[in-house]
């Protein structure tokens, strides 16, 4: 993983915490979770407060995700909202955190001047033992406390202010007035600074979870669709009257579901030719085949002529795989007729020709599923399914790892919004 770290392809864009008072607040949050405080003089955090350095120190990557449900968080500054989430069991953790930051911006800004917020994103279950446990999660509640008790002090001051206003003789209580002054010195004027978060409950919509080898849950009006390994506990048994179950290797049914529910863009010249997605995937397929056949080849040094020569020498391999000539034929069909007859395409190849509908709220989740169905496209896998990408990266040859890192750094990280907009139609303000 060293190569990924140096290229900021893992644990990139994190926020450094090095000031002693901030480390002290972070340690109070750790102790609030029953964890030992860090001895580090500096560390980096993501949007949720997760730190890879502290995970290494504790010997536990799930120190903020102990049961892979009811995710913990530590908020040191409003700046965390712009950071990625680099370790999570649910694909919508980042979305829920964005909603929490947006709904409680004033409170977070006020509290983190003198304190840190921490707590849990509480689901309706404490452990996930079957699909039913995941299906039962309809909403989440942010349970929030503060390292320096700022929230408790603000609540106490609010109650004393209400008493002062409501009880005629309360102003004669010197002890109460002194306590109010003492609290106000720490909290400031709570009439101007809202310290208590306004919104703590949020809907839990469609998501991917890393349980049972990875499970997708899509929600539509009146029905829920589960896509996962059929060996997962509860498959076809949890709520069969309202849940549709699809095996993760059933390409035909997955495609049919995505198309029927309007979650994908079918092959049309209007977006295909402008996006360059087919050319991109064709290139990914060839590079994947080259690496499989000759893992020691330095792909950074190959050019178009070398690849053409390799294809001629390995025509039987390219033909047996079939994906590259299929994509070339699809591009010719698009150029000639403006579309492709999907009913004539083998189910496992249909995912090469589609992308998520950019205006659908599940676009990131859908693209994640599509990228899992097109494993040769390591760029799309990195963009939408980092857990899957990192697992695949471990199986790559050293030469291919070098090429993958150089390609992602040079083509994707250079201008991520423009890259995502061109290939996948995703706007700059869309969140994963």
Structure explained in plain terms:
InterPro entries: DUF6638. The structure is a single chain. The chain is α+β, with helices and mostly antiparallel strands. It folds into three domains: about 1-150 and about 195-205, no CATH class; about 205-250, no CATH class; about 250-425, no CATH class. The chain is about 45% helix and about 10% strand. The protein has helices at about 1-5, 20-30, 50-60, 95-105, 105-110, 130-135, 150-165, 175-185, 250-260, 270-275, 275-295, 305-315, 315-320, 325-335, 365-375, 380-385, 385-395, 400-410, 415-425, and strands spanning about 15, 45, 70-75, 115-120, 140-145, 200-205, 205-210, 215-220, 225-230, 245, 265, 355. The strands form four sheets. It has a four-stranded antiparallel sheet. Helix 15 (about 365-375) packs antiparallel against helix 16 and helix 16 (about 380-385) crosses helix 17 (about 385-395). The longest helix has 17 residues, at about 150-165. The model has no long low-confidence stretch (mean pLDDT about 90).
């Amino acid at each position: 993983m060293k190569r990924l770290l140096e290229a900021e392809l893992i644990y990139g864009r994190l926020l450094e915490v090095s000031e002693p008072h901030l480390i002290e607040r972070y340690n109070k949050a750790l102790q609030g979770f029953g964890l030992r405080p860090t001895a580090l003089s500096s560390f980096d955090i993501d949007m949720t407060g997760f730190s890879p350095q502290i995970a290494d120190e504790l010997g536990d990557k799930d120190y903020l995700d102990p049961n892979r449900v009811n995710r913990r968080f530590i908020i040191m500054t409003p700046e965390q909202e712009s950071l990625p989430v680099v370790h999570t069991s649910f694909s919508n953790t980042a979305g829920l955190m964005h909603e929490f930051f947006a709904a409680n911006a004033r409170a977070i800004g006020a509290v983190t001047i003198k304190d840190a917020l921490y707590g849990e994103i509480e689901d309706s279950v404490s452990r996930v033992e079957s699909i039913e446990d995941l299906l039962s999660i309809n909403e989440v509640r942010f349970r929030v406390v503060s390292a320096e008790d700022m929230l408790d002090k603000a609540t106490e001051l609010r109650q004393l202010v209400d008493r002062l206003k409501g009880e005629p003789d309360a102003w004669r209580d010197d002890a109460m007035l002194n306590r109010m002054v003492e609290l106000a010195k720490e909290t400031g004027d709570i009439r101007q600074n809202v310290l208590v978060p306004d919104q703590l409950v949020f809907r839990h919509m469609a998501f991917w979870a890393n349980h049972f080898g990875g499970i997708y849950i899509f929600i539509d009006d009146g029905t829920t669709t589960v896509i996962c390994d059929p060996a997962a506990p509860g498959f076809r048994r949890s709520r069969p009257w309202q849940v549709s179950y699809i095996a993760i290797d059933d390409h035909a049914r997955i495609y049919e579901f995505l198309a029927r529910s309007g979650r994908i863009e079918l092959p049309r010249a209007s977006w295909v030719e402008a996006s360059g997605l087919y050319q991109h995937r064709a290139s990914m397929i060839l590079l994947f085949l080259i690496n499989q056949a000759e893992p020691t080849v330095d792909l950074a040094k190959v050019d178009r002529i070398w690849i053409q020569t390799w294809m001629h020498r390995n025509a039987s391999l390219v033909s047996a795989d079939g994906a590259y000539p299929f994509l070339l034929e699809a591009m010719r069909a698009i150029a000639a007729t403006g579309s492709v007859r999907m009913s004539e395409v083998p189910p496992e190849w249909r995912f090469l020709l589609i992308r998520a509908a950019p205006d659908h709220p599940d676009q990131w989740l859908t693209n994640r599923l599509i990228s899992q169905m097109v494993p040769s496209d390591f760029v799309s896998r990195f963009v939408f399914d980092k857990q899957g990408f990192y697992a695949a990266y471990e199986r790559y040859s050293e030469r291919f790892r070098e090429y993958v890192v150089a390609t992602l750094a040079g083509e994707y990280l250079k201008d991520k919004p423009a890259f995502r907009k061109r290939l996948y139609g995703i706007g700059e303000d869309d969140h994963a």
